[in-house]
Input
Amino acid sequence: MLFIVLIVVQQSCTIPHLLHDDTPVIGYLDAFQDNTLELAKDGFFDALEKEGYSEGKKTLQVIYRNAEGMESLLLPAIQYMESQNVLLIATCPSITTLIAYKNTVNIPIFANISSSPQGLGLKSDTLTDSIHFKMFVGTVATNRYIDSSMAIISQCVQPKKGILKIGVLYDQSEIQSLNALATIRTYCLNNNINLVNIPVSNTNEVQIALENLIHQDIDLYFALPDNTIFSTFATIKKTCNQFHVPIFTSEGGLVRRGAVAAFGPNFYDWGYQTGLQAASFLKTRDINKIHWQLVSKLTKIYNPNEAAKFGYKFDDSFRPIVE
Output
């Protein structure tokens, strides 16, 4: 089965030698199919087009792969891109960035919708690591904006029984999920909030774990910025709807998909920022002039339908966004 999937994916790619030799070839790799991640991809390629790089104008060639949620397909996709001499690989989200960085040496990895290198557990302690570390570029986020999203909850959610109780699922195999959980735990300790958290190790465990959380009488569910939550958000949303539990998050894309509100990056803007950086590299081909950046634009957004359902009010500093 794996062999068949790989053949289908490979045949869908454009072969680099079909275009002029001087046309830059880049790779773009998604870990799974997701409407919010699609926004980041749109922003990335819109920025490239603005800077003169477009497949439509034959000034760029893109080898695109989507692992469709199968982590085992990420490495073969990266190896194929490497064999085609791509100038860079844009990766989305964090798990893709981490695998690409660890399995390449001389190809710039443009992180898109990713945790920072430190958040992914990457270090540059030795000279060799430092040289390789230069290949980690793109746009990343830290967990600092999670606190801002948590503050929204404190302002608009009234607890059922005295102390606010927040439910969280986290993927114990994802370092960015563990880091986000640590940030939320600290916030809750400092703000007299009861945090109930349950670990999951794969997507099949999410629904049962979430029902377990809900049966502990949580006031709301907070969706962490990790791959497991993104890929199962439709299930999470359906289950929370069934039990009339609001969802909050730090990810703007999930508000579009049915969370109540967030104060964090807009995925299109995030992708656009990464795309501008990639365009700069394509013009100079000098990795020494590029460095990873923190996502620069954070936005307060809310979902009017969800807000109305739960009776929440948001002031004019929030931008409404519709599913």
